[in-house]
Amino acid sequence: MTDESFTRLLVVQDLDTLITQLAHRREMLAERAGLTALEAELEALAGERAKLEEQRAVLAATQKELEAQIATINERSGGIEKRMYAARGSSTRDLQAMDEEVRHLNQRRGELEDEELVAMVDQEPIDAALGALAARAAPVEDKVKALRDEVVQSQSEIDAELTTASAARAAEAARLPAALADRYEGLRTRLKGTGAARLIGHRCDGCHLELSSAEVERIRATTPDRVVTCDQCGRILVPT
Ligand SMILES: [Zn+2]
After folding, report:
1. How far is ligand 1, taken at its centre, from the CA of residue 234, in Å?
2. Which end of the chain is less packed: N or C, by CB atoms within 10 Å?
3. E strand or H helix at 29, and its extent?
4. What are the pLDDT digits (tens) for 45-81?
5. What's the gap in Å between 192 CA and the centre of ligand 1?
6. Is there a contact between 35 and 147 (Cβ–Cβ < 8 Å)?
7. How far is the CA of 190 from the centre of ligand 1 (A)?
8. pTM for the complete prediction?
9. 210 Cα: distance to centroid of ligand 1 (angstroms)
10. What is the pLDDT of residues 186-216, one digit of tens each?
11. What's the DSSP call for residue 210?
């Protein structure tokens, strides 16, 4: 182990820290840009729209069903009227019966038409509410679209930085002595991504705690071929 190994170890650590920061920044892009909040708003609006559309669909189905019943009545009364015209020789009683049935059918049609009108009128406020919802959603959709483009752009910039940093990291790590690399990886996994720290003055850059003067002297006096660790956090400590 040489001085150079520890200098390289710090380079690897700095690149690992950078990679972690970049990955975190990438993950937080949508939230930082306000995109997550706007997407939630759009989702809430879509929920309201779905409810209204369901109510509207029920009324539209009712209307359609009533229209079908009215069409059946029209057909039946049309058929009877045709028979009445054709059957001039029929008895008065038969004609009266047919006339009575047509009147009855007309009455029933009137009732169904009233019901249909109610179903149609009830759809009007729903259509108005749907229109208002669409008007509220439109600017949010525009903003979401613009922000998504921005986020995608920023992501690809970060991805480029990540690619560069990862390649540099791999190249530097490959030149570390295997034992040092293994020890570093073990510590890094255990200690939130930081396995090696600088000793800056009396302070460990890993745990940010001050070391005693005696401890600092001991570390600085250690030959550069030996690994020293921070008493407080256990990280590999590299005097700078
Ligand atoms: Zn420490």
Report:
1. 6
2. C
3. helix 3-32
4. 999 999 999 999 999 999 999 999 999 999 999 999 8
5. 12
6. yes
7. 13
8. 0.74
9. 8
10. 999 999 999 999 999 999 999 999 999 999 9
11. B
